[in-house]
Every structure is written in C-alpha cells, then in structure tokens.
Amino acid sequence: MPIYLPELTVNSLVFPPVSQALTEPDGLLAMGGDLSVARLTLAYQSGIFPWFADGDPLLWWSPGTRTVFPPNTLQLNRTLRKQWQKSELQITLNHDFAAVVKLCAAPRPSQAQTWILPDIQQAYIALHQQGLAHSIEIWQQQQLVGGLYGVQLGQLFCGESMFNRIDNGAKFALVALQQHLQRYAPGWIDCQLPNPFLLKQGASTMPRADYLELLQQLRTLPAPAKHWQAQTLTLQY
Predict the structure, then answer these.
(1) What is the crossing angle of helices 169-181 and 78-87, to 10°?
(2) In the chain, what percentage of residues exceed pLDDT 90?
(3) Are 6 and 47 in contact (CB under 8 A)?
(4) Are 44 and 158 in contact (CB under 8 A)?
(5) Contact, 57 vs 31, CB < 8 A?
C-alpha cells in the first residue's frame, strides 16, 4: 500500500501537526524541506526529528512512543567505577564536536550503513556553531574513545547518537551528560527511539502526548550559556 506524506517546501518553514504522524511506520510525519538551522530548531521544538537512509528523501518523524532518561537515572555501578579508576580517562564538553559526529557516523559491526550522512553531519555542525548542539567526548591517552552529541532545548537535551571505541565509552558519556545537566536543570535526556542498550541503562518510554508536555515545560527554561562552553568535566561517583 502506498504511503502518502505531506511534502515540505524549502520556502515554507512549517510542519504538519504531530497528531498526523503515521502509526505504520510509527511516527513518520512528512518528507522534504531542508536541514537548515531554522527548520531543525523548529523540528526539535515541536517534538520532531529527521531520520532517513542514503537514497531516501528527507524524512521527518514524531513517534507515538518516546524514550527518555529521567533525572538521576544514570549512575556508575561498581564495575564502571573500577573501570573509570583504572582507565585514566578524561571527559570534555564541546572540545571536538565534528569528530564526535564523524565517529558516530562510522560503520559498526551490527550496522554497516549509517543515517548520519554528510548532509546530516554538516547540518548538526551548523547547529553546534550556533550554540544549539553539543558533544561529550571521552579521551584515553589523547585518543577519542567514546562520546555523544545532541541538541539542547532549554533544560532538555535531545540526544542524537553516541559511539564506543572502548567498553562502556558511551555509558561514561551518558553519565557525564546527565551530571552536567543536573548542575542547572532536572537532567532529562530525550533518546528518541528505544533500543536494548538504552533500556538496559535505565531509559523509560512515554506516550508522545506526555513527551510533548515535558518538552513544553522544559524547552523555554533558562540554560546558562557559560554552562555549555568548551570545558573539562569531572565525573562524580
């Protein structure tokens, strides 16, 4: 059965209501438009994100079920604390956003292809240059071994992707992110879609309506600009 989607135009900065998103495939809302800073900002403010494969049109999604890390969810257990103490790792914020995006896009054993295509990479680098997207980096002997990036909306962080080059590199980045958020905000992290890794770390799911209510509450709350300047982070445990 063919799928009929609203087609966005570059000249019109608007999305359909998320209530019009399809249930199969879950959350597919619209196609087309562009990846400008203005459109991406509006998308995230509306509970929408881009996701498409090489060769597909630009697709926009707002799934019926959303995955989040509630405040105080991410903790270092005894095993992670021991690894952290032995591994001589360092955590930074916004030291090399482009490198984190590139490594998130790299092929993985369980995923030969990536949705983080060159156009997506450039779009999020543009968001970063506008102070809207941020990265957490995990370093070992001056080598980037883990990290994540995403979009900040007031006091909500919308995670986009993460990577590991050592065991638990992404877990350390997630814990560091939530700890950093909680220095000025509750610590909510949006993870978009569920997967076994996120659920194992303590992520929860919520209906789209509840997520949109949370988004409405957090997106306009203050986020100190100095808080997101490039810096070294200290992991608390």
Answers:
(1) 100
(2) 87
(3) no
(4) yes
(5) yes
Pairing assessment for the beta strands 133-140 and 143-153 based on DSSP bridges: antiparallel
Report the Cα 84 to chain-centroid distance in Å: 23
Q: How far apart are CA 30 and CA 21, in angstroms?
A: 8
Instruction: Please report which helix (H) or strand (E) contains residue 93, including its range.
Output: strand 89-93
Q: Which two tokens stand for residue 105?
A: 């896009």
Query: Over the Cα atoms of the chain, what is R_g?
Result: 17
Give the chain's end-to-end CA distance (angstroms, integer): 53
- Would you state the pLDDT for residue 114? 77
Candidates 166, 172, 160, 171; CA nearest to 128 is 160
pLDDT tens by residue, 160-179: 999 999 999 999 999 999 99
Q: Which residue type occupies 34?
A: D
DSSP E strand stretches across 120-174: 133-140, 143-153, 156-164
Nearest to 186 by CA among 163, 213, 165, 157: 157
pLDDT of residue 3: 72
- Whether pLDDT at 46 is above 70: yes
Q: Is 72 left (phi over 0), alpha (psi -120 to 50) or beta?
A: left
- What is this structure's pTM? 0.95
Give residue 4's pLDDT: 78
